[in-house]
Amino acid sequence: MIAIRIVPRLSCFEEALDRLIEIKGASDEIWLSIYGYFPLEQHREQCERMVPAVQKLKQAGKRVIVELGTTLGHGSVLPDVPMVNTFEKMRGVNGVQAAAGFCPRGKNLIEYQKEVMRIYAALRPWGFYLDDDLRIEYHGPVGMGCLCDVCAGLFNDTHNTGYTPDQLGELIISDTDIREKYIAHNREGMAYYASQLASAAMEVCPDIRMGWEYVLLGQSNGPDFDNVFDALYETTGKPPLSRPGCFFYQDHEPRKMLDKVINTSLQNVLAPDYIQVRRPEIENCSQTAMGKSINGTCVESTLNLAYGCSGLSYSMISSDTEPLDTRIRMWHAFENHRDYWRKLIDDIGACGGTGVAGVEPVFSRNGYKAKIPGDSRQLIKWAQFPLSEGRQLAQIGLPISYERDFCGVRLLHPDAVDYLSDGEIKELLSAAVITDGRTVEKLAARGFGGALPLAVRQSEPFSEGYTDHPANGASIGLRGITDGFTQGRYFHTLITEPACGILAVSGPHTTAALAPTSEGGRWAVVGSALWCTVINGAKCRQICAIADYLGGLPCLLNNSEQVMIIPRATKTGMFRAVTLVNISIGETAPIELTIKNPVSENFVLSRPCFGDLPLAFGRDGEDYILSLPELGAWKTATVRAL
Question: What is the dihedral of CA 629, 634, 637, 638, to 10 degrees?
Fold first, then answer.
């Protein structure tokens, strides 16, 4: 369940292992990270020194994982090792050659890495992970690649063309057909590289399980990660291990953790169905006492499990600059959280399987095909489409999920429209959607002006009153003020037809409405403050109530607190659990929840380091009303229906 990553060459290596064996509940796996492109003889010597440690770990009941920490290089962030100059360098679409990022088809690199795999596979680890620098982008100063002479030549041979690397770089920007072929070319190169390394490991250790650490940065790699995972699966015959992640190295700006966790959940959704082991990358880089706190690390861990990861993995010790004290205290915290985390993992498979039920932000899996005005080789917008837009509404208590089978409503940010095809827009018009006036403007410009029985016009900031429409929920009859200090200063009044349901008004003007679409869908168009996280309580509750009205949420936060909720439900829509986190620096008031259609009436409150607390409930019609105690600053709790 818990994996700790350590670099074996450190002077504290032996002591760290002894303490991890002593603190039994802190880890189940130890990952030995091999970092750097050193002469093979040095790798052999290091591997020999690791043998006693591996034997000790296995005798203590710990799984041993080896991680190849440098696959295609980390750009210029590498020690100056002369043999790096023998490897084939990556050349980006921007025409720049990487300082220390390598072509996935490079023969010298592959032969070297295959021998490295053979050396460490002799330790007979349970698994072998490839690091997340196995990617085709962000090998600085390369934005994305590879267009070296070898790759450009292979592309030309495959497609019977004769482009120079520079010509091909220009066409990738302007010609979506060439771009799609080029991305397929990159995917094949990464798959080839992964299969070569996996084959080498299996020569020595036939039972090896291969895994991949990976990041979702855009769509330079295409619509998913199947290329590498399929290659590992086909080579080994075993489902690969997954370690999704992306940035967030210290918790000085803690709300950025929320976007990382949701991004990780999207990576899990995009991974192949056969992936069973999903351990998030929880980075404590640069792994100093001045970086991520113990509580921040534990909160990030909890949220990843609530979003469906099957275990945890930590980048913990990779330098000798710090005493072990802070890490030992962190390991004790892991041990103390263990029972709580186990309950979260068990909830994933309970009742025939559960998922995060909420509102799904819209993005196109084919966004890399988009023609974006102003694109250039320096800023390749189609490869960096806005994945995160809309996710911020998790901060107002709106549950955000990419698990479509568990979501009854979708959230359409206007920036996502640029990446949608006409077919994808038409599909959305048959769904339940929450969006704003800018989206309506963009759709009209795309030729979909007649799809909704309303139009929008820009407005000055306004105050608005919420009507008695049932979609307004607890905000019925209240008034809210949206002012110029609100994030995202976009204001629209709506020109509606009789088919629309009026949700909010400002004087004679409509400011929010429900509208049937030409394709049979139902859209809520909100005229202001939809994408803001600093809003009044009435607006906050209105947005959540609209989502519930359109899509049926299994859980609602009833009071205006800065609390994120992650509800889990069965495929039939029955509430199973909800994890809450206070995302403010102050303690909340007592929290009230509305629970719908639970799997049982036996509710308990689970918290780290505490036993389960039985919860009484009240009733409001068919709904269950639960009162929870105050939640401390950046603390978590989970309500479970047993």
Answer: 130
Scanning the structure block, which residue is given the tokens 């996996």?
A: 198
- Residue 423 scores a pLDDT above 80: yes
Q: Residue for token digits 């009789």?
A: 498
Residues 6 or more apart whose Cβ sits within 8 Å of residue 158: 181, 185
Q: What is the mean pLDDT of residues 70-83?
A: 73
3-state secondary structure of 465: strand
Helices and strands counted in the chain (H then E): 14, 33
8 Å CB contact between 311 and 277: yes
Q: How far apart are CA 76 and CA 476, in angstroms?
A: 57
- 37 with 101: CB under 8 angstroms? no
pLDDT band with cut points at 50, 70 and 90 for residue 337:
very high
The DSSP bridge partners found for residue 563 are 582
Cis peptide before 421 (omega within 30 of 0): no
* Residues 420, 431: Cα–Cα separation, whole Å: 15
Q: pLDDT digits over 140-180, tens only? A: 888 788 999 999 999 999 999 999 999 999 999 889 899 99
SS3 1: coil
User: What are the residues whose beta carbons fall under 8 Å from the beta carbon of 95, sequence distance 6 or more?
Assistant: 147, 165, 166, 169, 377
Angstrom distance (rounded) from CA 260 to CA 281:
10
| Rounded CA separation 314/37 (Å) | 23
Q: Are 356 and 568 in contact (CB under 8 A)?
A: yes
Q: Please classify residue 484 by burial: count the beta carbons closer than 10 Å to its beta carbon, then call 0-12 exposed, 13-18 middle and 19+ buried.
A: exposed
Per-residue DSSP letter, 311: S
Instruction: Report the run of H or E that residue 294 belongs to, with start and end.
Output: helix 294-306
Residue 630 structure tokens: 């105050």
**Cα 303 to Cα 395: distance, rounded to the nearest angstrom:** 13
> What is the C-alpha separation between 67 and 54, in angstroms, rounded?
14
pTM of the model: 0.95
Q: Judge residue 552's burial from the number of C-beta atoms within 10 Å of its C-beta, 0-12 exposed, 13-18 middle, 19 or more buried.
A: middle
Q: How many CA atoms lie within 13 A of 483 on its CB side?
A: 4
SS (H, E, C) 527-572: CECCCCCCCCHHHHHHHHHHHHHHHCCCEEECCCCCEEEEEEEECC
Nearest to 32, CA basis, from 22, 52, 291: 52
- Rounded Cα distance between 527 and 525, Å, is 6
Mean pLDDT of 547-568: 96
Ramachandran angles phi, psi of 357, nearest 5°: -100, 125
Residue 268: pLDDT band (50, 70, 90) is very high
Write down the pLDDT at residue 283: 87
Residue partners of 553: CB distance under 8 A and separation at least 6: 357, 358, 359, 399, 544, 547, 567, 596
pLDDT per position as a tens digit, 178-192 = 999 999 999 999 999
pLDDT for the residue numbered 272: 96
Tell which phi-psi region holds residue 401, choosing left (phi > 0), alpha (psi between -120 and 50) or beta.
beta
d(Cα 150, Cα 603) in Å, to the nearest integer? Answer: 61
Determine the pLDDT at residue 158.
Answer: 96
Beta-strand relationship, 277-278 and 241-245: parallel
Gap between the Cα atoms of 96 and 138, Å rounded: 12
Position 80 confidence tier, pLDDT thresholds 50, 70, 90: low
